[in-house]
Amino acid sequence: MRIFDPHIHMTSRTTDDYERMAGAGVRVVVEPAFWLGQPRTSPASFTDYFDSLIGWEPFRAGQFGVRHFATIALNPKEANDPRCRPVLDLLPRYLDKDAVVAVGEIGYDSMTPEEDEAFAAQLALAVAYELPALVHTPHRDKARGCERTLAVVAESGIDAGRVVVDHLNEVTVKLVRDSGCWLGFSIYPDTKMTPQRMVELLREYGTDRMLVNSAADWGRSDPLLTRATGEAMLLAGFSDDDVDKVLWRNPVEFYGQSGRLDLSDLEDPTAVDPQTGNSILRGGS
Amino acid sequence: MTPDSLRAALRGVPDPDWLDTALRRVTAEPTEITRLFPAAGRRCGRGALPDAPGWTADDAARVLLLTALPATTPATPTPSTGTATRPSGGPCCAPCRCCRSAPPGCRCCTTAIRTNDTRLVAAALGPYARHLDPAAWRQAVLKCVFSGVPLAAVADLDARADGELATMLAALAEERHAAGRDLPADATDLLHRLTAALPREA
């Protein structure tokens, strides 16, 4: 089972995790920039964080044979702090980097006017820098948050096929599916989504545009729940090809739209785009 | 390797027109380099250049972009360690190439030596290492041994290695042996060379 975790915060994890993930089949990870638990108070601490996401963390991952990419953004929660707003001006420097495959996590936390503004500005950056966008949905008031998210996405002019709306559940799945956006599901030990509930959603809605991630971070979470979801799919009668589509080909297609998802040198020769023969997978583009 | 020979070596890259245009833009408008510099690998490729041994297409293109900046440009961009994306081997970015001509105290190089990213440490211990004072140089060599960077990366190794480095290496060897581990072979060889060359105490 080859696994691409499209959303995981490895900065918060240990080398034991990398070792276990590699052993479980995780070959590629995408680490979105997010809130670190402790609120930051100046743009300078974001700069060092972003540098680590495209410098030190890929190096660390490489020690375990895991390829590491990042998404860069000012996260919704900290978009509310005026001291952090100048981070928006720092983003262009990072959005040109090879290792950055999307703008994210953007979206809503408390649905404030400040979040509206940062969300729209960063969707515009995604369009300008020809990158996909990773959109977080709020923990509170999720359904209405999702509706508002989709309205902002539609208004921005970005192609829905270049947006993943993440942390979905039974209540929000259909809304996002009908929008044409990609659907992200964060499999957690017992909150956002579980492997068994995920299998039911895949049965009901199919495997197209579905992305399964562990969203593992500094909270209670488990980087191996992508693998557990693959196993639950097999037990429920899904084929190996279905599992490969959800856990590998779908994230490759989504982030491949950046034109920067260089998977050359990975052991698997199928990482080369079969249509173009190009070692940089470009997904649907 | 001169800019002209690098440019000649880049003639066969996938998109040579992009590079020509990029060089003209950087000369005309230096701030453009912030967008063109990181795009070099995507547009010129990352493969080895047959006509420029030891150089890859992206490194060569980035160095050419830097050389295309007008001489009056106040400061060249300071690429952070964040330009490293390759999980294996080799200098990761043009700044490491610039270690060849970096001035003493170059922030990029001194930061690189402080990191635990072995690619950056190795790159900064090339020609830039001549600017390190003896104490800093010995610490950097020992860091290579400690973190598994082959000592072949260290410029002027035998010329600068001295009795104090031998003492430090011997102490590390003792620690390793106490733990049931060995020094890397290249460090053991260096220690042998140093102890053979040093005058024995009476």
From TrEMBL, chain A:
Keywords: Hydrolase, Metal-binding. GO terms for molecular function: hydrolase activity. Gene3D superfamilies: Metal-dependent hydrolases. It holds the Pfam family TatD_DNase. InterPro entries: Metal_Hydrolase, TatD-like, UCP005295. Residues 265-285 are annotated as: Disordered. The keyword Hydrolase applies. Belongs to the metallo-dependent hydrolases superfamily. PANTHER family: HYDROLASE TATD. This is TatD family hydrolase. It comes from Micromonospora tarensis. The lineage of its organism: Bacteria, Bacillati, Actinomycetota, Actinomycetes, Micromonosporales.
